[in-house]
Amino acid sequence: MDSQKTFSPHVLIFPLPLQGPVNGMLKLAELLCLADFHVTFLNTDHVQHCLLRHTNIQCRFIRYPKFRFRAIGDGLSEVHPRSGDLFMELVDGMEVVTYPLFTEMIGIPLIYFDTLSPCDNLDAKITCVPGMEGFLRRRDLPSFCRSSDLTDPIIKLVLNEDQELPKAQGVIIHTFEELEGTLLSHMRSLCPNLYAIGPLHTHHKVRLGSSKAIFSNSLWEEDKSCLAWLDAQPLNSVIFVSIGSLAVMTKDQLLEFWYGLFDSGKLFLWVRRPGSIAGDCTESMIPVEPLEGTRKRGCIVGWAPREEVLANPAIGGFLTHSGWNSTLESIVAGVPMIRWPYFVDQQVNSRFVGEVWKLGLDMKDTCDKVIVDVPSRSCTI
Ligand code: UDP
Asked: Which GO terms describe its molecular function (predicted)?
């Protein structure tokens, strides 16, 4: 009896080594620690190094005696810059490193954590999927559904995932019933052990209390100076611009963004992640007019404390690449969105935000300066 009382399950959590999955899974890990689970969190050396460098993660988790970090390589060379468009390179590298590891784990129950939205789990016949009829066009489908080239690496990855998925005892998804109930019911008819556990940062906040609510899981150094800048701006006056941790824009797109912000006449906070502009683009290449015209109206940082920024009352709108974490964070904060989807699930996320949830504008059809203006912060959930 005694041994039963003290038994607590041990979970190994292993995220794809990218900002979105690492952020969500660290929050899940902390919630499991609070529920008295043993947790081993497996990072890549690079991710672990970034977390130790830019966050207080070690102090934060030290209070959970049943938690430990472990790290392995990511299959890329030590001198690889790990910036720019590296998604597929990382996936390939990880496959090589993890294959021997996971073949040893046969017999251990497997739970699949989908950190994308369920609306990305489409097959070609979208007219048959309840909750998706009538409004999805081909260009709204996830990028991997729009190609018929079966040698496309992202299609291969998705097909491989589909083969592996039935081996899982359960699937957890980062969403919530009120947002995607119809789709979740449809998915449960195919996979009964499906659990919607989002938005994780809200549960995290509830369990850890509001004073300690915002803990950074950032792989880049957060520039908190933007919070003081925001505090000095009027209510709902600032457009927040951020394209997440993976998207890369060309110099032409950068110029459209810049002119759009300039022409809008609005205040803006712009996150320009190091490596997020393709090629060697420096400010000296930006024409003087938009550069000078926006100088007094904007704050530009390399990486921002996102949840704190979105919660700031000065933020009136969010120009986002439509990553799923960004979408959930914006919905929770009640900030309307302008959407510039980049890849994977972002096209379909963007269409849902515009057409179904009516929480923003989808600009996938026109990425130009005319669209970049601030809608008022009027929608809440
Ligand atoms: N993020 C952040 N600071 C920034 C930009 C992004 O903390 O300046 C975080 C954001 O809160 C989100 C994650 O990075 O949790 C990005 O994930 P998402 O799924 O939105 O997009 P991805 O980066 O995977 O394309």
From this structure: transferase activity
Does residue 1 lie in a domain region? no
**pLDDT tens per residue, the chain (381 residues)?**
444 567 789 999 999 999 999 999 999 999 999 999 999 999 999 999 999 999 999 999 999 999 999 999 999 988 888 877 788 888 888 888 888 887 777 788 999 998 877 766 554 445 666 666 667 777 787 766 766 677 777 777 777 777 777 788 999 999 999 999 988 998 898 889 999 999 998 888 888 876 555 688 999 999 999 999 999 999 999 999 999 999 999 888 898 898 889 999 999 999 999 888 887 677 778 888 888 888 889 999 999 999 999 999 999 999 999 999 999 999 999 999 999 998 888 988 998 898 889 999 888 766 566 655 444 444 333
Atom of ligand 1 nearest to the CA of 329: 11
Question: Ligand 1 mean position to 278 CA, how many Å?
Answer: 19
Task: Based on the fold, state whether residues 263 and 133 are members of the same structural domain.
Answer: no
Distance 304 CA to ligand 1 centre (A): 9
Output the CA angle 69-71-76, nearest 5 degrees.
155
311 and 361 housed in the same domain: yes
* Candidate of 202, 241, 270, 326 to mutate for ligand 1, largest count of ligand atoms within 8 Å of Cβ: 326
Domain CATH number, residue 317: 3.40.50.2000
Does residue 2 sit within a domain? Answer: no
Exposure string over 118-155, b if 16+ CB within 10 A, otherwise e: bbbbbeeebeebebbeeebeeebbbbbbeeeeeebebb
Total of domains in the chain: 2
Give yes or no: residues 30 and 107 share one domain: yes
Q: Ligand 1 atom closest to Cα of 115?
A: 19
45 & 175 share domain? yes
Range of the domain at 324: 225-379
pTM, two decimals, is 0.87
Q: Are 314 and 233 in contact (CB under 8 A)?
A: yes
Contacts of 273 (CB under 8 A, 6+ apart): 220, 243, 244, 245, 302, 303
Q: Which amino acid is at 225?
A: S
